[in-house]
Amino acid sequence: EAGVAQSPRYKIIEKRQSVAFWCNPISGHATLYWYQQILGQGPKLLIQFQNNGVVDDSQLPKDRFSAERLKGVDSTLKIQPAKLEDSAVYLCASSLVPGVNTEAFFGQGTRLTVV
Amino acid sequence: RKEVEQDPGPFNVPEGATVAFNCTYSNSASQSFFWYRQDCRKEPKLLMSVYSSGNEDGRFTAQLNRASQYISLLIRDSKLSDSATYLCVVPRGWTDKLIFGTGTRLQVFP
User: For B13-40, how does the pLDDT look when each residue is reduced to its tens digit (9 = 90+)?
Assistant: First the structure.
């Protein structure tokens, strides 16, 4: 079974530039998460989709971050303009449906460096 | 109080040792809990789920104490390959918003 696919794996940009990350979840998984993981910290949830609807984006810095999940499958996360503190690994995860037995499967992440 | 709290460690233990990590959570309504393992520069992967009082899988035992709102992970007979960061995860609410702790780093030495 194919896992969660993310691209690019690495990205270096200058501050104030824009960047976009792409995620393709496991086929059939209704829930998609974007997490930000800063070095030495646990993943922090940015946004959670259920199919193509947003169920939680309370921690998404909406002045610079945006995300969409068109057609309830692939998703993109965009940062515009980037700041130095956005340097982190951006992890996409998916799960089948919400429930007691939910297991989230993670992609390998995109490592963003803002200089 | 943070929703999910863990001791960041690092825990440095010799091979063969038994080591335990604790994780406390603030949402008393949480029903299920998870331990994820994250190797250096890799993505987190599910290690164990905990739904009732506990779960055991080989050398790994996870226990849940609802009264005190903590879960623990016990690793017996530690191997070098157990060196990793162990993340405690607590779903919040009906949407299963997965809240991660900061992780506990384990280093097993020969």
Answer: 999 999 999 999 998 888 889 999 999 9
Contact residues on chain A for B99, CB-CB shorter than 8 A: 45
Question: Which segments of chain A are extended strands (E)?
Answer: 5-7, 10-13, 19-24, 31-37, 44-50, 53-56, 65-68, 75-79, 88-95, 105-106, 110-114
What whole-number distance in Å separates Cα of residue B110 and Cα of residue B15?
6
The strand pair at B104-109 and B11-14 is best described as parallel
The closest alpha carbon to A66, from A51, A83, A55, A81, belongs to A81
- Going by C-alpha positions, the residue among A52, A10, A54, A108 that lies closest to residue B95 is A54
Which chain B residues are within 8 Å of A42, Cβ to Cβ? 4, 6, 87, 100-103
Host H or E run for residue B38? strand B33-38
The tokens describing B22, both together, are 């604790």
For chain A, which residues lie within 8 Å of any Cβ of chain B, measuring from their own Cβ?
31, 33, 35, 40-45, 48, 50, 55-56, 91, 93, 95, 98-109
- Count of CB atoms within 10 A of residue B63's CB? 16
- Cα distances (Å, whole numbers) of residue A88 to A14, A41, A84, B75: 14, 10, 10, 30
Q: And the tokens for B73?
A: 């992970």
Mean pLDDT to the nearest integer, B58-77: 94
Question: Cα(A5)–Cα(A62) distance, rounded to whole angstroms?
Answer: 24
